[in-house]
């Protein structure tokens, strides 16, 4: 099966972006898990890593800027709510 150039490029770019997206997803879920457990120290640590990973994913064009901003905002909102308790 012969692939045209655009589909090869698309496939390659998808493969290049995947690790950034996976890392973001894992760190966000780790942060949410720590928040639900009520462990603010662990949640803060994971949140810092998640924000950094989100910024890196944006820099590498793996995620759209508005998507990154929304994810960061919602994550930090949950973290701040935990801190207020």
Layout of helices and strands:
Layout: H1 5-37, H2 40-59, H3 65-84
Helix pairs in contact: 1-2, 1-3, 2-3
General description of the model:
The chain starts with a helix and ends with a helix. The chain has a domain at 39-85. The radius of gyration is 16 Å and the shape is elongated. By secondary structure, the protein is mainly α. The relative contact order is 0.14. The protein has helices at 5-37, 40-59, 65-84. Helix 1 packs parallel to helix 3.
Provide the structure class.
Answer: mainly alpha
Distance between the termini: 59 Å
Q: State the share of residues found in helices, binned by percent.
A: over 70%
Helices and strands, in order, run as HHH
Provide the low-confidence segments as ranges.
Answer: none
- State the shape: elongated
Query: For the CA atoms, what is the radius of gyration?
Result: 16 Å
Total beta-strand segments: 0
């Amino acid at each position: 099966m012969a692939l045209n150039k655009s589909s090869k490029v698309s496939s390659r770019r998808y493969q290049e972006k995947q690790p950034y997206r996976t890392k973001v997803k894992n760190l966000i879920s780790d942060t949410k898990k720590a928040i639900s457990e009520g462990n603010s120290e662990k949640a803060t640590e994971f949140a810092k890593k998640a924000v950094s990973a989100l910024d890196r994913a944006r820099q590498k064009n793996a995620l759209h800027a508005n998507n990154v901003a929304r994810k960061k905002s919602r994550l930090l909102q949950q973290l701040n709510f935990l801190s207020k308790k």
